[in-house]
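Hey, quick one: can you model this chain's 3D structure?
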Amino acid sequence: RQSPFATMFSTVACTLLIAGASGFHLSAPVSQRSAAAARASALCMGEEPVVKYGEGSGWKPTDVAGSKHTMSGGFESTDTPDFFDEDDDYSKKAKGISFTDGIMGSQAGGKKPKSTNPGVEGALDVNPDIYIPEAEASRAGQMVFELKSSGMTDQDFAITCDSLEGTELVIPVRPVCMTFEDFYCGFTADSHQAFSVSPSEGKMERRNGPPTQVKVTVKPSGRTGELTGYLCFILPEEKSFSTYYKITCNSR
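Sure thing. Here's the predicted structure for all 252 residues.
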């Protein structure tokens, strides 16, 4: 009695014999087929390549009239030399041209008529409707000089003077606004009549500019004693920056 292993081996052997007899071939693995194809292609590439020398050596460009191609027989250079033949008409004409010919302006040397108005005349006539802003009317007569509601002043001055000669006081007012501002100066209604100020109006400089110098004049006209005046420096467009001064003059 045969073992199971022997029986299986006999069955496989019989199957292979039958397949060979009938012409049936089992497929080989993919790796083996690829190797076989590579060997076949390697055998085909063993042929000698065909190499030809001197092909196209006898080519010549075709003459084409007016052609600009550099390889054509009809090519003509368009470059011109930077000189002329001495006997050429241009050379003869150039001999009579000086380097100063054509120079105008201050180099003309009297050849060009001088003009005291080189194109400026009539330049503004293109637009006759030129706007000229009118000067702003003074508001000095409309100003009311009075202290702030608190009655406080920004700075106080105490001076003395002769009752007959009087005196003067210069007060520098520092600019604090970013633009030029109109100002008006004057004393309050309850100030002594001996006080006056100059200038009474003007335009203050911008911030960091020079201060406005205000000159106060005191003329007691023989009056003696303590004279008091309240000076108002008003900026109508920037009233919060207006300044006020108290001046006390001891007239003797």
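One thing worth noting: The two ends are 166 Å apart (CA to CA).
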